[in-house]
Design a protein that fits this description.
two-stranded antiparallel ribbon; globular; 4 domains; nucleus; about 625 residues; mainly alpha; about 50% helix
């Protein structure tokens, strides 16, 4: 039997990887140094004759043999400390919560008609059998009860999770084996920098790879996470408050690490900012922490199977209720919104876009549309002055929640034929596009779905032109059309860097496919041409050539589905239609009924069927009609 290496580097030992022991740094370290992880061979004194390097931390699984294998069993809800998130008892609690009544429409108590295309649909709390607690602002102090249902071994594990060490610094905290007293403390400052610079605990760190153990590999799978997103999210040491359940935070970060490579176009770009946002919300207040745990639970379930079981559906329903209540509980107190008012509104949007992304794979399209309608007024309160909100500034400078809402508003509008939910001031020129090339990678929204930021801005600009032409019953000036056409051709798309060359190529193909979609939107939506027009046909053929030229797979197909649906409106050849449907159905996450993507495919099939029966080419107005027939809105 081969012996475990005793002279490998500490970094390889910590990751439970085989070290080739090349000096002065092993080959594995050369990859990790690029991520900011630098570790050399650290020799320690040994009583034997052989030199030994520093051993790795022992996994939690060795601390207690009876510890559950799945972190789902260890995560406790902040509001229900005796109930685990993954337990039957918690799922029964989820089931007792009613789903939001999407059909109810009530006034939000303020006049947004000047900035909204359509009134925001909200709910009255009287329609719910329970009264949700308003969470703005979070209370100054919160009470936490340490778990009381732990056996002695589990209590020992819980103690170890809250007493992790870094280097030679140790912090000792004692928990009783069978019960723990109620602990009252002041909620940490939501400013992460302030919280971490003035910790209430001594220099104690938490390495989340330690929590997993070698038998639970949540972020080390090179096939599912070839760029190491999980290592950025989960293995960066984080200083914690002593009252915070370290294992719950590890569960949240691990869930995001499993989810993001599946649904985010370029997750490595946003991994660090995502981690900071998760920690800030986790330390914010019990309500924010509860939503984070629910989001993480649903993400983890979907990462395992795109078909949610009953427990997953109950968890999703509870998450939807909490996000919905968070939105409708918000009421603007100051007009125009002050800085504090914008912070309150921004907090009300927490987890909204994450729920929208989850809906894409788990809920009908109508749920997303109505949720965004209800949140539109909150979004406007969160926008920086002046109103109308400037889309360019939103994409480059705004907080993440506001930036994401604006981007999703554009995507939902162009994929359903519906007007934008809000009115925007949208400047446009090629010189403005240069600002997107010069921006930081984590600015904008390209990292989320693969749409180049300049094209999101251009979609907003063209949507304004289209709505103005419809309102005034006039045609768009041909000089404007020609200028936009030239700008689309000359727009520079920043290259996609990746340690995996195939991912880089796939990402560039996705972005170039969006260029052809912009052409089709210009010709059909703005100019009013049908699918038989030569310019539309040329753009459609270029798109199909690009799509056929890249090998099918999760990446890029997961991020080609939205542009493919839009190109499908302009597709007339049966062979091309077959290619589109087969490419979409090849992904298991898109073949599930009663999901947003499946609804999009039904919309496309409705357009094809109606135009065939009527013997004509499709027009952009058919998209709006098909959306109404499929979703009812």
């Amino acid at each position: 039997m081969s012996l475990r290496s005793i002279t490998g580097c500490y970094l390889c030992k910590s990751k439970r990887k085989k070290c080739d022991e090349t000096k002065p740094r092993c080959l594995r370290q050369l990859r990790c140094i690029r991520r900011g992880e630098n570790c050399e061979y650290e020799y320690i004194e040994s009583s034997g004759t052989k030199r030994r390097t520093r051993p790795a931390p022992r996994p939690a699984s060795e601390l207690v043999n009876k510890a559950p294998k799945d972190p789902l069993d260890l995560v406790t809800s902040p509001q229900h400390p005796n109930t685990t998130v993954g337990s039957i008892a918690t799922e029964a609690w989820y089931q007792s919560l009613p789903g939001p009544l999407l059909e109810s429409v009530h006034s939000v108590g303020m006049d947004w008609e000047a900035t909204l295309y359509q009134p925001a649909a909200t709910l009255s709390l009287s329609t719910f059998p329970f009264q949700a607690e308003a969470e703005f602002p979070c209370s100054d102090s919160e009470q936490f009860i340490a778990p009381q249902n732990l056996n002695p071994d589990q209590a020992s594990l819980f103690n170890s999770l809250l007493s992790l060490e870094k280097a030679n610094s140790h912090a000792e905290h004692n928990f009783t084996s069978s019960s723990a007293p109620m602990i009252t403390h002041t909620t940490p400052d939501v400013d992460l920098g302030h919280h971490m610079s003035q910790p209430s605990w001594s220099n104690t760190y938490d390495s989340f790879s330690f929590l997993c153990g070698p038998d639970i590999n949540y972020f080390g799978d090179d096939e599912n996470d070839p760029e190491g997103v999980g290592e950025v999210l989960c293995q960066v040491p984080v200083r914690l408050d002593p009252i915070v359940d370290s294992n719950s935070l590890a569960f949240v970060l691990q869930s995001y690490a499993r989810w993001m490579p599946l649904v985010v176009f370029d997750p490595l770009i946003i991994a660090s900012a995502t981690q900071e946002g998760i920690i800030r919300r986790f330390l914010d207040c019990p309500g924010s922490r509860s939503r984070l745990l629910l989001v993480s639970n649903v993400m983890r379930r979907l990462a395992k199977s795109w078909n949610l079981d009953e427990g997953g559906k109950m968890t999703l329903s509870s998450l939807r209720d909490q996000v919905w209540q968070n939105v409708i509980n918000y009421r603007s107190k100051e007009l125009p919104p002050t800085e504090n008012e914008r912070k309150r509104a921004n907090a009300a949007l927490d987890q909204l876009i994450e729920l929208v992304v989850i809906h894409l794979y788990s809920s009908p399209l109508v749920s997303t549309i109505r949720l965004l309608q209800s949140a539109a007024a909150v979004f406007l309160s969160a926008c920086p002055a002046p109103h109308l909100p400037n889309m360019l500034e939103l994409l480059l400078e705004a907080d993440m929640n506001v930036r994401l809402f604006a981007g999703v508003d554009v995507v939902i509008s162009i994929t359903t034929g519906r007007p934008l939910l809000c009115r925007y001031d949208v400047p446009w020129s090629l010189e403005i596009c240069d600002r997107f090339i010069q921006k930081r990678e984590d600015q904008g929204l390209r990292w989320l779905g693969g749409i180049p930021d300049q094209f999101i801005l251009l979609f907003g600009f063209m949507s304004n032109i289209r709505e103005n032409a419809i309102a005034t019953k006039t045609e768009v000036d041909t000089t404007i059309i020609q200028q936009i056409e030239e700008d689309i051709k000359n727009a520079i798309i920043a290259p996609c860097d990746s340690r995996d060359p195939s991912l880089g190529i796939g990402r560039m193909v996705v972005q170039e496919c969006w260029r052809e979609v912009v052409f089709i939107f210009l010709y059909m939506a703005v100019c009013g041409l049908d699918a038989f027009d030569q310019r539309v046909e040329r753009a459609q053929r270029r798109f199909m050539k690009l799509m056929k030229g890249i090998k099918p797979g999760r990446h890029p197909d997961a991020f080609l589905v939205i542009p493919t649906i839009l190109v499908g409106v302009a597709t007339t050849r049966s062979s091309h239609r077959q290619t589109i449907t087969s490419r979409i159905f090849s992904r298991p996450e898109f073949s599930t009924p009663n999901t947003a993507v499946n609804d999009y495919l039904r919309i496309l099939e409705d357009i094809w069927a109606r135009t065939q029966v009527e013997g004509r080419a499709a027009r952009w107005e058919d998209l709006r009609e098909a959306c109404r027939r499929v979703t009812g809105v």
